[in-house]
Design brief:
With 297 residues, this protein is of the alpha/beta class. The protein folds into three domains: 87 residues, Winged helix-like DNA-binding domain superfamily/Winged helix DNA-binding domain (Arc Repressor Mutant, subunit A, Orthogonal Bundle); 94 residues, Periplasmic binding protein-like II (D-Maltodextrin-Binding Protein, domain 2, 3-Layer(aba) Sandwich); 91 residues, 3-Layer(aba) Sandwich (D-Maltodextrin-Binding Protein, domain 2), CATH 3.40.190. It contains ten helices and 13 strands. The strands form four sheets. The chain has a five-stranded mixed sheet with strand order 4-3-5-13-6. Strands 8-11-7-12 form a four-stranded mixed sheet. Helix 1 crosses helix 2 and helix 1 crosses helix 4. The longest helix has 25 residues. The protein is elongated and about 75 Å long. 29% of the residues are buried.
């Protein structure tokens, strides 16, 4: 039964019968025959097959989600018997925001994989919304004030944000001394990042405005700020090095970004969390913490 389940999971994960067959040294015809036998035994259609694509039926998607849990539990049970209790193995699919993933996830993959060599990691970087179930993602990094329904969240670190600008911009346009002074400055923000939510003595303040340059990229916003185009609200994980070197300077330090946003690792709600997912959460927690490296000094 485990072999049938593993074959079905490989078909879904690779997106084709032929690709799944290659990973298990089976011909496409044999893969198709075994999947058909599995559907007949279950009495349900699991896959929609066309000449161009392969997709799960509603029943197939639900079956796949349970199969993944069953396979992970089976591997962990075998590890216990063989004395490798809880040793992570198999494929671990991760997703993270583009900048954060490049700066603070990718550099930490080598020590993680050195510790757990039986794991295979896939890392997808995207600033768009990723449906973890539909995309079959094991773990995602989310920077948000709260965790959406259907997901389990693990807080990894605070997400501190500050207004910043280049020394050249501030020399040319003057540094704002009060929130009201921001009205005469150019704002820099990616799509959906305005209005800014800033802290004040009386609570959260919304600062309305339009970005001097329209972009969907947070990395572009950072580069525009460095180039002296205006003032941006950036996370310290994104500009820590620039603040330390003086390439960027904090503006209105008494009005940082609202403090209700944190960095989370999230995964679909499940009764069984794979060992690889637990291990990676622990790995990032040990690296970040309440005072992550980007906030030191």
């Amino acid at each position: 039964m485990d072999r049938e389940y593993e074959l079905f999971a490989r078909v879904i994960e690779t997106g084709s019968l032929a690709a799944a067959g290659r990973t298990l040294n089976l011909s496409p015809a044999m893969v198709s025959k075994r999947i058909a036998a599995l559907e007949e035994r279950l009495g349900a259609r699991l896959l929609h097959r066309t000449t161009r694509k392969l997709a799960t039926t509603e029943a197939g998607q639900r079956f796949y989600e349970r199969v993944v849990e069953i396979l992970a539990a089976s591997r962990e049970a075998e590890n216990i018997v063989t004395g490798v209790t809880g040793a992570p193995s198999g494929r671990l699919r991760l997703t993270a925001p583009t900048s954060f993933g490049r700066l603070h996830v990718a550099p930490h993959l080598k020590p993680f994989l050195d510790t757990w060599p039986r794991l295979e990691v896939e890392l997808d970087l995207s600033d768009g919304y990723v449906d973890l179930v539909a995309e079959r993602i094991d773990l995602a990094i989310r920077i948000a004030p709260a965790i959406e329904a259907g997901l389990t969240g693990h807080r990894l670190a605070p997400n501190r944000r500050v207004l910043c600008a280049s020394p050249d911009y501030l020399k040319k346009h003057g540094a704002p001394q009060r929130l009201q002074d921001l009205r005469r400055h150019r704002f820099l923000a990616a799509a959906a990042q305005l209005p800014w939510r800033l802290q004040s003595k009386t609570g959260t303040v919304l600062v309305q405005g339009e970005s001097a340059v329209r972009t969907n990229s947070s990395e572009v916003v950072r580069e525009l700020a460095i180039a002296g185009m205006g003032i941006a609200l950036r996370s310290t994980w994104d500009i820590g090095n620039e603040l330390r070197s003086g390439v960027l300077q904090v503006v209105l330090p008494e009005h940082p970004g609202a403090a209700d946003v944190s960095i989370f690792a999230v995964h679909p709600v499940t009764n069984f969390v794979p060992a690889g997912v637990r291990a990676f959460i622990d790995h990032l927690r040990s690296i970040y913490g309440d005072e992550p490296s980007w906030d030191r000094q």
